[in-house]
Amino acid sequence: MINADSFFQxxxxxxxxxxxxxxxxxxLPHLAMDHPRIADVELxxxxxxxxxxxxxxxxxxxxxxxxxxxxxxxxAMNPVTGVAPFAMVNCADLGDVxxxxxxxxxxxxxxxxxxxxxxxxxxxxxxxxGDHLVSLPVLRGLASDAPVGMIHFDSHTDLFDxxxxxxxYTHGTPFRRAIEEGLLDPKxxxxxxxxxxxxxxxxxxxxxxxxxxxxxxxxxxxxxxxDVMAEARQIVGIHPTYCTFDIDFIDPSYxxxxxxxxxxxxxxxxxxxxxxxxSGVNLIGCDLVEVSPPFDPSGGxxxxxxxxxxxLMCVLxxxxxxxxxx
Length: 326
Fold this sequence. Notes:
Layout: E1 43-48, H1 63-70, H2 85-88, E2 91-96, H3 104-121, E3 124-129, H4 135-142, E4 148-153, H5 174-180, E5 184-194, H6 202-210, E6 213-216, H7 217-223, H8 225-236, E7 241-246, H9 268-276, E8 283-289, H10 300-323
Helix pairs in contact: 1-10, 3-4, 4-5, 9-10
């Protein structure tokens, strides 16, 4: 399905070298929210350069800038699935949500307001974080009227209750808060890739008590990508679903540039495979979080991150097309 609107096509490296020009996500046009063509955007790429929820190694606030730079390497078509997202839907780089680096609550309010505006305009977001707390205000903007399902790729559940004597908002707590706030339907929620040493098992026990399906890495490898992802699609069903992808889902031998790496994870190809298996899911938005440039001197983690973002855009574009009136 080809979109004839040339305005929303990325700059081709056959015309302008990748190293030239101002970098935008995937070399797409950059549109401010008051741009006259904003009403035509269907899929918006957004940076959220914010890591105030980080509990140990900071740096993901610099992720969107590095991800933009590395995304100039992305081409137009997925050669495996045949999906060409830029030809299917109108895509644009909508810039960054400017956070307040010294006020966590104000930052979350700014982010939630921005995403509520996207929802009101019918724009499905592809977000680049930022740490994983970013997902909470994004969900506040997208799911304020009804809870959504979620497919979550990560090495951590992010279902903890609090840190440091009762503090409720860190990158380890977003999905507990989202369930409590009625943003996520825990019975339509699956977490894949969980592993690593633990403080205790309280997060797992709490999540499972709410109905969250938690697949540890051992089960993932025992069953394989297709079997696990078939279950994921069954759990979320046909209803609106959000996908969140923490780069530490991937083994740190492939993605070292992140704040809380855990050994024993999937490789880069398996990570592409799990996203491709989202085809047919009714996705309303996606994010890729926790890329931390200070721990990524080669840029390899960011390159892997934008490659996963492109895979996510492919399945998100399919979902947008499926929702169009017939």
